[in-house]
Amino acid sequence: MAKETYMLVDNHDRRQHFNDGRAAGEAFARARDEDRPVVIKSTEKGAQFLATSGHSIDRETGERIYSKGFNHNDAAFREGWEKVEREKLAATYERDRAAGVKSGMMRLDGKEVAEVRVYENRDDPGGKATYDVHYYKRQGSPNGTYFTQHRGLDRSALETAIGEKNAKSVLQSGEKAVSLSGDRLAYAQGASPQIEDKTKVKTQATPEQQKEARGGMERGR
Hints:
Number of strands: 12
Strand content: 25-35%
Order of helices and strands: EEHEEEHEEEEEHHEEH
Shape: globular
Mean pLDDT: 85
Number of domains: 2
Oligomer: single chain
């Protein structure tokens, strides 16, 4: 079996080396988004970019929004990543609960959401419905989306994404388009559901991100 090693490099040219994918996944999850970390996985056959980070600009505020992505086929790396993300969500939930948050705000993957818009799709009257979901940082914001929208979610995935109470509100409304905010938006800790490649939530790295990742690899040599 080929030996696998992992190297985490950030934009300060700091490097961490791992022989265990789980430890590398934990380190990547804990790394500051602002440091633009990338992870390079090496085997006897060569090296590849396993994880990258990037940013986009909020069109309303000009705020820089960071994101991370990685190849989920590496099971050990994914396990380490998910462990840390679960810890983050649990800590965030406890802070929100202590603050008395009950409505008007939910979180998706640990990020604040002030408004959720859900659109029902149904190919035929007897078919099962699927749902597209848009997330907004500010109520009534036309451009303030900070997450890639979810498309084609079934009922179970909808509950995972926006929480059972909010999904119930959508389903009971009987409307094709539902907006939840303020008192209508129940507090929930949502998570991006696992969906098929054709409806992936995660976007591919942009050319800019790929260029920066290659630069990180060069610095790491």
